[in-house]
Every structure is written in C-alpha cells, then in structure tokens.
Amino acid sequence: MKHALKAILSLAALAVACGAFAQEAAIRKNLSERIPQLPKIDEITKSPMPGLYEVRINGTDIVYTDAEGNFLIQGNLIDTKQRRNLTEERIEKLTAIDFNSLPLKDAFTIVRGDGKRKLAVFEDPNCGYCKRFEADLQKVNNVTIHMFLYPILSKDSTDKSKNIWCAKDKARAWNDWMLRDVQPAAASCDAAALTRNVEFGKKHKITGTPTLIFADGSRVPGAIGTAQVEKFLTEAKP
Question: Where in the chain are the domains?
Fold first, then answer.
C-alpha cells in the first residue's frame, strides 16, 4: 500500500512538473513571437499573486505576464496586506553582490577604529553626491571601507582617479580631493584596476555613484546619511 501511494505521489509530482514546464514553454513562445524586441528571457517563475508570472530579463529586470503570455505588465507588485513592494525586494535579492567576491585588490582601504564592520563603496571623484556622502562618512567609526574608484562621468573623472590610484598615499589623496578640494597631483602607474572596476560595475549594473555594498551583499545606491549608514552596518550580517 505504501509503495503504491508513493508511486501515485511521484506520478502526480511528475505531472505537475510537466505541466509547469509546458506552461513556461508556452509563455516563452508567445512572448518571443509577439514581442520580438523583448530581450532573451532568463527565467519564468510564479509570482506571489495567483495567475501572475514573473519574467526575468537582462539578468535582474522583471516584468509580469499571465499564464499564456497574452499580457505583459511593467511595474511594481505590491502586497497591500503586508505593505511590501515585492518587486523591489526581488530586485534587491537579484542585485545583491557577494561581499567576499569583490575584487578588493582593485580598491584601496581605509580603516577607522577597530575596523570590524565592513563597507565597499563605488565612487566617481567628480560626483557631487559622492562628496556630500564622504563628508557624512567621516562620522562613521569602527569600520573598514574598501574604496573602489569608479570613473564613469567624464574623462576628467578617469584622470583624477588615475592620479589618486597612483598616489603614494591613496587614502590621503582621495580625502584631500573629496573633503578639501585639493587636486590630486599628477602621477602614473599601472591603473588597469580602474578599467576592471568599470567592467565589474557594468556587469553588476552599478549605474550611479555612490553605490554602497554591505557585508551581507545588500547594496544601496545614492548618498545616504550617517544614521542610515550606521543602520545598514548594524543590520548587515555576512
């Protein structure tokens, strides 16, 4: 009896899996035929809303469709009972970066206090928001900051980044410029790290500066204040 029951359950599970596969195939086929400009579909999964499917494209972009791919929805899926933006939460998970996978050799390090807490930051030296953020970051103690120079705004950003990266004391040259408007002295060295930083950022869709990455892999775009940085550092658990 037990063996028969297991066999029935296995067949039922197989039927469900086959049905799900066929449904996903139908969605892929209909969307690709009807919207040829739609990027290649990476993944199709059921969303928390009955009858609605999540379609993941471009790695971390999300749209929604019905079970047959007859309709396509762009926007945020909100759980009104729990007051949660489910789309935003999903994208945060998709864009999270494993802190241990960061190419730290391409960053310079600033340690304050005991340095126990960890933070990585991608910044462009010509970014006004970055300068504001740096002023607030000075108030944060007991942290190790891995600073990735990320020159994406202009050629001058690349020139300044190169001079800072090639300076004898990178952290001092950086702080002199960001906090005191002291131009970094001209310097030359192997600055391939800057190119690798930009490539890394493009791969992980770091589109603006500053972008902060905490020890648990969560990222925060934009110049947040000291209190918010402290909150994320406290909550981040690798």
Answer: 28-95, 99-235
User: Which pTM does this prediction carry?
Assistant: 0.74
| Beta-carbon contacts of residue 66 (< 8 Å; ≥ 6 apart) | 51, 52, 53
Architecture of the domain spanning 99-235: 3-Layer(aba) Sandwich (3.40)
CATH number of this structure's domain 28-95: 3.10.450.70
Q: Which of 215, 211, 191 is closest to 201 using CA atoms?
A: 211
Q: Measure the CA–CA gap between 163 and 57, rounded to whole angstroms.
A: 38
* CA–CA distance, 219 with 227 (Å, rounded to integer): 16
Tokens (6 digits) for 144: 């190790």
Close Cβ partners of 16 (under 8 Å, ≥ 6 residues apart): none
pLDDT score recorded for residue 21? 72
Give the three-state DSSP class for 55.
strand
Distance CA 93, CA 217 (A): 9
